[in-house]
Amino acid sequence: MITIDAMMVCLDLSDIDEKLVAFTRSLCERLEVRKVYFVHNIKVYELSDDFKEWFGDVDLASEVEGNIQDIVAEHFGTITDHEILVSQEPNTEVILANLVKRYHIKLTILGKKMSNKSSGALGTKLLRVLPCSVLVFPETASLYIRKMLVPIDLSDTSVYAIRLSKNLSDQFGTQLEIMHVYRLPSQFFPLISEEKAVSKAEEVVKQKFADLQKRHQEIARIPYTLVRAANKSIAERITLHLEKGGHDLLVLGLKGNNPLPSLSLGSVPTELYNTNINVPLWLVYSGDVIK
Prior knowledge:
The protein has helices spanning 16-30, 49-55, 60-75, 92-102, 121-129, 156-172, 194-215, 234-245, 267-273, 287-290, and strands at residues 3-4, 7-10, 32-33, 36-41, 82-87, 107-112, 133-138, 147-151, 175-182, 224-228, 249-253, 281-284. The protein is α/β, with parallel strands linked by helices. The protein folds into two domains: 1-143, 3-Layer(aba) Sandwich (Rossmann fold); 144-291, HUPs (Rossmann fold). The strands form two sheets. The chain has a ten-stranded mixed β-sheet, sandwiched between helices. The longest helix is centred in the C-terminal third of the chain and has 22 residues, at 194-215. The relative contact order is 0.14. Mean pLDDT is 85; it is low at 257-263. It comes from Adhaeribacter swui.
């Protein structure tokens, strides 16, 4: 059973907010979530002089809070204890990171617009600085989760992601698939034939996965797909598999073992975030990594 003591939902007062709040409700209906914080930060310095001249000394924070209350009342209701937090700070990343620490947030939900509508710069910054797992919800994603994909690299981080995915799959009553993308050491060609190299690589990876299954019996019956990267990146192969497989949720484990926060996200999660995928992306840190 997955229990989330505190969840944070980041709203930006755009059209995606209603769908984001509705998706949060669907999670709370299927997971044990004890409290949800709906948050928005007003960057006052970005307001134009015309705005200040037209509206004068209006209590903007109260107006924004009222707007969010209306959305929450319509699309979330009273299904779970919740609170609305509106701040007015110059740096959104800093205030949100502080909220995660102050309220012991375990999962943050971020909305994501398609690349033709937004640069995604703030989202990328948040993924790098928030000390918790993050669920990215694209504006084109479905509210319903029927099939999940968890790509792994056979590390301890992968095991944590698989366990989370298995628990989610059991609670949601959905299908779950494990995927591994491998690369061949191209520097050895043409000394070794490509056919032999592929055969040997698959044999090695399958044996490693079999050993993983022996150590963790809970994943023994989960379908497993092995894919060669070939001329594409790992993220591109994952994206293609998502499109072909009809998955509704992608779960990735994050190592977080780099002492520099700006470098800890990793190339595959970053590339996937910057790709216009149509499914939610759950980027999960283990509890030990967060500590």
